[in-house]
Amino acid sequence: MKLLRRIPNCFLYIRSLRQNQVASVYGGQINSQSKPYTPRRAVMYVPGNDQKKMQKVTSLDLDSAVLDCEDGVAANKKEEARSTIREALDQIDFGRTECIVRVNSVTSGLMEGDLLEVLKAKRMPHALMLPKVERPQDIDMFTKQLKVALQGRSLQTRPFLITYVESALGLMNLRDVFQKTVDLQLKEQLYVLDGVVFGSDDYCADIGATRTADAKELLYARQKIVTCAKAFKLQAIDMVHIDLKDLEGIEKQSLEGARMGFTGKQVIHPSHVPIVQRAFSPNQDQVVWATELVEAFSKHTESGKGAFTFRGKMIDMPSVLQAKNILQLSANIGSKAP
After folding, report:
1. Which backbone phi and psi does 162 adopt, to 5 degrees?
2. CA angle (272, 276, 281) in 5-degree steps
C-alpha cells in the first residue's frame, strides 16, 4: 500500500481532535475539555518590538505568528516589545493567522512584566508560549503570575498554552510538566494546554552536542517529545531550520518531521512558510484516496463483513482510521483558508 506508507504519522493526531479531549493519562484519567483544533503547520517568530514585521505577517497566508518577547528581542528592547505587542493585539487584524505571544521564561525575571503589560490589551492573544520549561514548578509559577495578570478580567475564551523543551532536564521532566499543567488547567481555568515546541539549538548547547545537517544528534529528543505530546493529545512543533537559503533542506526536514509525528514546524523566514505548510498537509492524491476508502468502507460496513479489498489491497480498521484522519486534517486546514 504505497500511498498509505507515504502518509505522515502526524495525521494520527487528528483522532484525538474528534474526541475533543485533553488527556492526563499518566494520572489514570482522561479529562474532557472541549477545544477546537487550530492548525499550526508553520509557526513563525516576529520580534515584538518590530511593528512593521507584525503588519507584514498578515500578507503571508501563515498559520501562526508568534509575537516574541524572548530570544528575538534584545535585552534593551524588552519593554518596547511588550508595549508594541499590546498595541498590535488591538490594532492589527491578523486575519486567518493565529496570534501567539511568547513571554520570557519563568527564571528570567521578565515573565511577570511581559504578562502584566501584554494582557492589558483589550483583545487576548489566541495562545501563550512559555519557553525553557524544565520542572513542574515552572508551570506553577507561570500559572500564579498569569492569574495576577488576569485579575478582574472576565475570560470569554481561555488562551491556549504551548510550552517548550530546550534542555536535558526539560526533556526528562516532560511527562511531569504536562501532568502538572493539565492539573492546574482544570483547577484554575486560565488556559488550555495545546502543544509543545522543541527548542533544538538551546537543547544542543545544553547537552554539548553539535548540530549536523541530518540532525541525528536530536533523534532521541524529537521522538520523546512526539511520544509525550501524543500521550497527552497535544500538538508537537518541530525544530527551526536555521539555513535561510536552503529551501531544499527545509522541505526535507519538514517532511521528515511530519513522518515522525510532528504537527508543525518553527519558521524564521517568510520564504519557508509555504514549503513547511505544504509538508504538513495531505496532498490531493491522499485526500482522494482517503475519500474513496471511507466511502468504500461505509458501503462495506452495511454488508456486515470485516476486512475488505480496496484498490487491490486488503484494508482493515487502522487503514480506515488513517483515511479519516487525513480527511479531518484536510477539513481543519480548509477551515482556516482565507
Report:
1. -125, 125
2. 155
**Neighbour count for residue 47 (Cβ, 10 Å):** 22
Q: Cα separation of 62 and 95, whole Å?
A: 10
Could you give the CA distance from residue 20 to residue 324 in angstroms, rounded to a whole number? 15
pLDDT given for residue 10 in this prediction: 46
- For the beta carbon of residue 159, count every other beta carbon within 10 angstroms: 20
What pLDDT, on a 0 to 100 scale, did the predictor assign at position 22? 39
Say which amino acid occupies 144.
K
Q: Using an 8 Å Cβ cutoff, are 287 and 326 in contact?
A: yes
Instruction: Report the predicted TM-score, pTM, of the whole model to 2 decimal places.
Output: 0.85
Point out the catalytic residue in the list 90, 214, 243, 316: 316
* Burial profile 183-220: b = 16 or more Cβ within 10 angstroms, e = fewer: bbbeeeebbbbbbbbbbbebbbebeeeeeeeebebbee
**Residues 4, 322: contact at Cβ < 8 Å?**
yes
The answer to whether 249 touches 213, Cβ cutoff 8 Å, is yes
3-class SS letters over the chain: CHHHHHCCHHHHHHHHHHHCEEEEHHHCEEEECCCCCCCCCEEEEEECCCHHHHHHHCCCCCCEEEEECCCCCCHHHHHHHHHHHHHHHHHCCCCCCEEEEECCCHHHCCHHHHHHHHCCCCCCCCEEEECCCCCHHHHHHHHHHHHHHCCCCCCCCCCEEEEEECCHHHHHCHHHHHHHHHHHHHHHCCCEEEEEEECHHHHHHHHCCCCCCCCHHHHHHHHHHHHHHHHCCCEEEECCCCCCCCHHHHHHHHHHHHHHCCCEEEECCHHHHHHHHHHCCCCHHHHHHHHHHHHHHHHHHHCCCCCEEECCEEECHHHHHHHHHHHHHHHHHHCCCC
Segments in the chain below pLDDT 50:
1-33, 338
Note if 114 is an active site residue: no
